[in-house]
Amino acid sequence: MSQLPIPVQGPFTRAQRTAILNLVRRAARAEILPRFRKLDRTDIDTKSGPNDLVTAADTAAEAMIARGLQMAFPSALVIGEEAASKNAKITDGIAEAELCFLIDPVDGTWNFANGLPVFGTMVAACRFGRPVWGMIYDPLGDDAYVAAQEEPAMAGRRTLKTAPDKPLDHMIGYMHLGLMPQADRALAAARLPRFASVSNLRCSAHEYRLLAQGAVDFVLSGKMTPWDHAAGVLLCQQAGGYAAMLDGSDYTASLPDAYLLSASSKAVWDKVADEMAGLLSAD
Description:
8 helices; single chain; 5-stranded mixed sheet; globular; alpha+beta; 14 strands
């Protein structure tokens, strides 16, 4: 892969975007799909807890994608989830990096390790912490949702569009209670009956894809691992949605843990934020 001077809107040339997609596709075909439903016990390990899994597919795919991106963009900061789990300090440079790639090789690892076909690969490019390009790839479907600044979010040739405004009791959303601080869980859970349905897929990749295509209305998360959100936030925004921290401040990939709310519109964001405002004063 090489950087070719064919300008299009957004941070990369058309050739570069194609090269990144092909890199991710090759990694999926070589390292992820051959291991799906074929993992041995020795291929699965834990990180922060018994449900925070890492597999041989995660580490091998990340290594392949990171190596390819570094070769194509030698001056970029390239950060993968599994590398960061071993050395958290590598994320310190996100806010100052003119170009930083964030890689989640197998988002939804618990699903993947347990044979559930709900997982994806996420790659985002940030400038000084702000997402400027993102891709969420579905290895099983071999398709990608892509977003870039000043461009509509796309799924192939199809333009993605978030859902229209609706009453709170008609809204469907995703919320990760288990990833919230213990003290906040009861506060959040008490608000759930106000919505039509609130659940989670254990996979940010597909949650953000469904938000961008108009199938659900919001995603609320309290864990700011940058590889889980940078691509999804941009996808939401460029599909017509609105994303910001629950206190109203702008999202950047360098933020510490706080509440991030991505919604199908500013009106929906406001309604959900009002319902969940108690989380901001819980501490």
